[in-house]
Amino acid sequence: MVLVVVTKDGGGGGAGKKFISASSVEDVVSKAKEKFQLLDEVTSSYKLCVASGEAEGLEIEEDEILMELTEARKPELLTLVLIPKDQLWTTTTHHSSGSSSADDEVTLQEPIASPQTPAPPKCPPLPMGPLLETLDPILKDLKMDPPPRNILLKKRRGAREASKYVSDFIWKRVRNYTFSTCQSYVSALFSYDDGLLKPLFHRSYVGLVHDTGFEALVTSVYNALNHLRSKSRIEAGETPRKRRAARSSRDNMADEEMVDDVESDPKHRKIDDYGCVRHNPGLKPGETSASQEQKRLALSRLSDISEGPEVEKLLMETYATQRSEIVGARPISSLKGVLSRWPHLLSHHCFYKHASHLLDKDVLDTFLTSLGHNAKDICQYLNHFWKQRVNVPPGLDKLLDQLDAAVSLERSDAPFSVVLIPLLLKYFKEDTAILFQVIKFNATDADVLAAASKSNFNPIIIVRGNSIFDAEDHQVVFLNAVVMSAPSFLEAILIYFLFYFVYGLKYPKESQVTLEFCQRTLLQINPPTGAKRDRTRRGSSTINSKLITLSNNLKLFQSTRPSF
């Protein structure tokens, strides 16, 4: 026996909804006819359709389907519509007339997910009153200008409260613990009252990009439900399920074997077009492999391959072939052969042209302009930050002394741009040595390659001189063999960074936060999804949380503007 709610289409007979307990589809129709006073009609002239949800409008013909749908809708009752057999379903006339106030609860939205994610069954709406009462003080603080200094802590606390509230509701009322159910409830939460709660979860970064926090909240709710399920199994005396870490580890090993990189090579994805606009375009109409080879040879015969209109023309005309060879280089050490065929890519002028076309922006101008706008403010904040700390990173005092001397000597703000990246490496507690090394003035080329060996074949900047402020030359070394000269330390940083996009590398773990800073703030590369760093946790933010913290702390610092 099942208990359902039946409503009737159109005029005639009784009106409203009726509770019906029956054991079959025919039994439901028969009892519905009786309650709606349709006794003069034969049972076979009516059919039952689902009133709402994913199966809305579908006719129920089999008893097994009736039982399954009734079970799936629990703890709610399944609502059916009784309509004439020959009448087609129309959405506008058959919705159930249940009432729910938008002020008190939110109904489910389609999950923000891939089409492969199954939609959850019909679930009860989420009451909002208790949650709003908890979050209202935080929402008021968010509207203040400037916000309170502890607003980040309040936002985190509010996000935790929201996650706990939603997960407890799903656990106690919904009892459907799938990932898509979590997505649906979080989507409903985000759409409530025209996005009233969205600012609580937003993660902004220097005003450039916004991570809505949707994925992070969905994952938090899902993890909380899994914790409750595990706890429930233990309390019931069941054996806890084993973690799948071992299997994941084996899968990762299998993936690594499929990629033919040598163990010491930098991380290189099979297709890494993250942030690129023209990653691997095809040949233009009229071009062939033979014509491209002729142009490559013409380019290599030019006496000065660094710049000039003819060089730029041939460079752009052969861009598609350059990209094809770079993308197809496997293992990544075979890029040495690609660069020997395209030696102009070792000229910083031509390299900038290639990278600018790849990223669809003037990389040098964007980089230097962004440094001019941001470097001094961030350096001031970092100096203020370390003044509040008892323990400071090794070498920080020396670096700040060199900065003071350079500012006094040059009487400009340019030294702030030079020192910004080294200071950020120390702030994020990352490895300076994997990004750049300073060696003596009279170091030989062999000394340069020896210093570069510490990078594990990733790109690295080698500075010959006393410091980054007092250097004879700057070189970027790749694969411990390819050497590219840069006219300054700042341009060496730019070239170093662009290597990760031009050659499709992932950021090394030892400096990934600082490199993401370069990407998002200095080069203004902010794709809405994806990342060049490893994201091992499902739902982890597109933007590194350390950058978000830096951005928010910088905003608070700038509201007071203490002197440097």
UniProtKB/TrEMBL annotation:
Region listing for Disordered, in residue ranges: 92-127, 233-274
Bias-annotated ranges (Low complexity): 92-101
Bias (Pro residues) ranges: 117-127
Composition skew (Basic and acidic residues), residue ranges: 264-274
Keyword Nucleus tagged: no
Record's signal peptide: none
Comp. bias intervals (Acidic residues): 254-263
UniProtKB keywords: Membrane, Transmembrane, Transmembrane helix
Membrane-spanning parts: 477-503
The protein's name in its UniProt record: Uncharacterized protein LOC117642855
Source organism of this protein record: Thrips palmi (Melon thrips)
